[in-house]
């Protein structure tokens, strides 16, 4: 006669061979509670009764292939799995030290609140022994992310562990992406984003106060001839943004304050000190450029151009070799072009871009050597260089027609083009 004890023994033997494959397939921590993993296996088995993909995945698992089960567990929670299985997966992944799995665990718990609230209420009532009020249930999602939000909020404090802050931020971003997978609308994801933005804003307000003192100390030292504090003048802001991400308020404050600090050494020709100050801040300039391109901010094109003029003119103009000098000139030209294109009415950007165009054109022309009788099919690179020089000179003339270097460069370009024409080249 088949008894419950017989079934228990059969299940135990089944679990003994299946649980290691289950743990490996779902990347569960080794040596963890067999009972917890057994509960998860039972949840999969219950799911298999009415969900054919789970049934097929379990059949493969019994044959030693955990890949189908792993793919099933990676599917978007609400569509593929029952609340019971979502719950057990979330609990299992919550025991892992893997940051990605920890995010999936949080995503699963939030999915229960968003899509299976009756199940969640039943489980909470069963575990507490008393009915759970709607008020308590409404606060539950915020309680799950409260620690992450507090870490972000405190990122501006001197004793903040910014590596941990970065992990919490990435976890929240991963959860939001998971909740919105396949274009799904998610109220919880929106709430988390809004709460995260509020936490960042709190951190930025605190940071501006502390970093303001930091940058003023560097500015005072610079006015006394000491530039040693410049490389880290905005260090707290740089480290905060690396951990938490860039915010509009912080980007605008950093760039506005830093460009004001950079003008005096720029006017004194102390380009090395300008570079020490602004070099670490290029990610903030990139952030502002991206926001301007997306029309998220208005009226700050000139600020971006100011930064690129100061930064671009501080970059070195020459190197030890022709190629190194070319890279230096390209870097200067790129920075100034970015500033001029973003703010076409910025006079300084236009004037300095014209000069860097001509510097670059001059350098390129120095490398153009034309030898009569040379097989023309090997001169394709020369043609490309001459075309680029023509573009650079033409652009410089449009930006600043009165530039003193223009006549000589135009004459040299015309001479090279005439030589190319004699060889039958079409430039």
Description:
It is a single chain. This protein is an all-alpha fold. Among the domains are: 17-126, no CATH class; 357-427, no CATH class. The chain is 74% helix and 0% strand. It is built from 20 helices and no strands. The chain has helices at residues 4-25, 34-48, 52-62, 67-73, 77-80, 83-94, 99-115, 117-128, 134-153, 162-179, 187-223, 235-244, 248-267, 271-278, 282-293, 301-314, 322-342, 347-366, 380-399, 406-422. Helix 15 runs antiparallel to helix 16 (301-314). It is elongated. Residues 6-10 and 370-377 have low confidence and may be disordered.
Please write out the topology.
Elements: H1 4-25, H2 34-48, H3 52-62, H4 67-73, H5 77-80, H6 83-94, H7 99-115, H8 117-128, H9 134-153, H10 162-179, H11 187-223, H12 235-244, H13 248-267, H14 271-278, H15 282-293, H16 301-314, H17 322-342, H18 347-366, H19 380-399, H20 406-422
Descriptive terms for the model:
mainly alpha; about 425 residues; elongated; 20 helices; about 0% strand
């Amino acid at each position: 006669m088949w008894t419950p004890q017989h079934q228990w023994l059969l299940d135990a033997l089944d679990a003994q061979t299946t649980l290691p494959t289950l743990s490996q397939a779902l990347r569960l921590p080794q040596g963890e509670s067999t009972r917890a993993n057994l509960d998860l296996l039972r949840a999969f088995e219950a799911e298999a009764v009415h969900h054919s993909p789970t049934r097929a995945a379990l059949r493969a698992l019994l044959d030693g292939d955990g890949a189908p089960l792993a793919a099933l567990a990676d599917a978007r929670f609400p569509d593929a799995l029952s609340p019971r299985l979502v719950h057990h997966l979330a609990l299992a992944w919550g025991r892992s030290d893997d940051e990605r799995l920890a995010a999936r665990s949080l995503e699963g718990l939030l999915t229960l609140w968003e899509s299976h609230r009756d199940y969640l209420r039943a489980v909470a009532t069963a575990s507490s022994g008393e009915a759970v009020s709607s008020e308590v249930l409404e606060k539950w999602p915020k309680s799950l992310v409260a620690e992450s939000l507090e870490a972000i909020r405190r990122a501006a404090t001197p004793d903040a562990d910014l590596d941990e802050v970065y992990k919490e931020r990435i976890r929240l971003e991963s959860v939001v992406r998971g909740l919105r997978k396949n274009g799904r609308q998610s109220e919880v994801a929106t709430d988390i984003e809004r709460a995260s933005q509020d936490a960042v804003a709190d951190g930025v307000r605190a940071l501006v106060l502390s970093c303001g003192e930091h940058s003023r100390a560097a500015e005072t030292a610079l006015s006394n001839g000491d530039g040693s504090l410049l490389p880290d003048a905005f260090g707290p802001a740089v480290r905060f943004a690396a951990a938490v991400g860039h915010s509009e308020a912080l980007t605008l404050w950093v760039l506005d304050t830093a460009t004001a600090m950079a003008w005096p050494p720029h006017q004194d020709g102390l380009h090395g000190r300008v570079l020490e100050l602004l070099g670490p801040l290029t990610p903030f300039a990139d952030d502002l450029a991206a926001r301007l391109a997306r029309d998220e901010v208005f009226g700050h094109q000139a600020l971006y151009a100011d930064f690129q003029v100061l930064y671009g003119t501080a970059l070195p103009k020459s190197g030890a070799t022709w190629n190194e000098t070319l890279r230096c000139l390209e870097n200067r030209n790129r920075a100034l072009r970015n500033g001029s294109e973003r703010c076409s009415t910025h006079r300084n950007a236009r004037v300095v871009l014209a000069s860097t165009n001509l510097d670059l054109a001059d350098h390129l022309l120095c490398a153009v050597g034309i030898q009569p009788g040379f097989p023309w099919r090997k001169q394709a690179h020369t043609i490309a260089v001459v075309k680029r020089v023509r573009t650079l000179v033409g652009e410089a003339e449009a930006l600043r027609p009165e530039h003193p270097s223009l006549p000589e460069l135009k004459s040299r370009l015309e001479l090279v083009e005439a030589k190319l024409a004699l060889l039958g080249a079409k430039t």
